[in-house]
Amino acid sequence: MELEYQHLPGLTSDIIIGMDFLIQKDVQLNFRQKTMKLFDEVIDLNVNHASRLDGIKGLEGNQLIILNKFLETELEHFKNSPGRTAAITHTITVKPEAEPCKQRYYPRNPAIQAIINEEVDKMLEDKVIEPSRSPWSSPIVLVKKPSGKYRFCIDYRQVNQRTVKDAYPLPQVQGILHRLREARYISTLDLKNGYWQVPLSEESKPVTAFTVPGRGLFQFQVLPFGLHSAPATFQRLLDEILGPEMEEKAFAYLDDIIIISKSFNEHLNILQEVLRRLRENGLQLQIEKCVFCRTELKYLGHVVNREGVRPDPEKVEAIVGMEAPGNVKGVRRFLGVASWYRKFIPQFSKLAEPLTELHNGKTHVPISSMDITIAALRL
Question: pLDDT by residue (tens digit) across 68-108?
Fold first, then answer.
């Protein structure tokens, strides 16, 4: 049986090829276990409940074909190899009176140690870290993700207390959302392990050292996550690459680059220029996390389209489903989540006042009053 395929390099999620192929190759799908059996090999499926292609139907006529041809040409320059820019170097400034911190580390069980070793080996291979003789040492922290996997982190809180914080400003979320409301087409570009694409100065590397139980001391060659000035350095880098001349149509927020336009052709022109600047500065994209030329986008807990900005219904549903807080920490958490949408809640400050007073320890709020306040905010 001959099968006909279309090449669509612009897709940002994996797909399962159509029914003809599934039947011919006797492909067995198990959605409960999220696996696919093909040629006697069992493959894990990465199931995206909210596809990044939602809203692609907003493209009209042959726009989707034009977009895919455009991406096929432009994205071939972006490979899976780690990027490394020469446009900026991150320097850690230690306070004059500060002494190096050497924190204790604890042995890990074999399963956790195996995860650590695997991550360390990968970082050594990619030249992200190197062996160290530093007097500094911070502990490894493994953070469990919703998927059940672990995120490798370093606890740099002690380092941050001993170093000077960069005051470079970060964009305000409300300002970004305001700019998005006028967009007809939107793209977001995700930089592959963005911070790791920024080299560290030689004198800064020892400050990032961390201990791997049973393997010794290592230090970063690139900007690690967890340093308090890392967001400022990365924001400065992207602001300089994009420049003031592109500010109205392309701007950065942390490790995302956002591109907006009112016409399809204009959007491709801007996108092409941004991609050129990223290439010339040695930066790599995480292509599967990029979103190209959408007419509607979920971003920062909001839905943005030609009609404006509104709260993401999924996020609102999560707030509505939250249990009433039973302590001050719970109140703080609820207020933090609810205040994210304060501009959509009339008289938010007045409604939240009982919880705010309880959070500040100024008064004792009766349970019934607290429940009423929470119910009002959920509306």
Answer: 999 999 998 887 677 999 999 999 999 999 999 999 888 88
**Total-model pTM:** 0.74
- CA–CA distances in Å: residue 340 to residues 177, 314, 335, 357, 375: 12, 14, 9, 19, 16
CA dist 346 to 250, 272, 322, 351, 376, Å?
A: 32, 42, 21, 9, 10
- The answer to whether position 129 is within a domain reads yes
Please name which of 304, 377, 314, 309 lies closest in space to residue 346, comparing C-alpha atoms: 377
The position carrying tokens 């149509």 is: 249
**pLDDT at res. 118:** 94
CA pair distance 155, 212, nearest whole angstrom: 13
Q: Which residue has the higher pLDDT, 234 or 50?
A: 234
Residue 157 falls within a domain, yes or no?
Answer: yes
- Both 32 and 119 in one domain: the answer is no
Tens of pLDDT, residues 287-341? 888 999 988 878 777 887 777 777 788 877 777 777 777 777 777 777 777 777 7
Whether residue 213 is contained in a domain is answered as: yes
Our count of domains for the chain comes to: 3
CATH number at residue 148: 3.10.10.10
Check: CB of residue 78 under 8 Å from CB of residue 279: yes
Q: Residue 117 is part of which domain span?
A: 110-167+201-220
Under DSSP, the state recorded for 200 is B
- Other CB atoms within 10 A of residue 167 CB: 7
- With bands split at pLDDT 50, 70 and 90, how would you rate the model's confidence at 14? low
Does residue 119 sit in the same domain as residue 207?
Answer: yes
Neighbours of 208 (CB within 10 A): 26
Is residue 350 one of the residues assigned to a domain?
A: yes
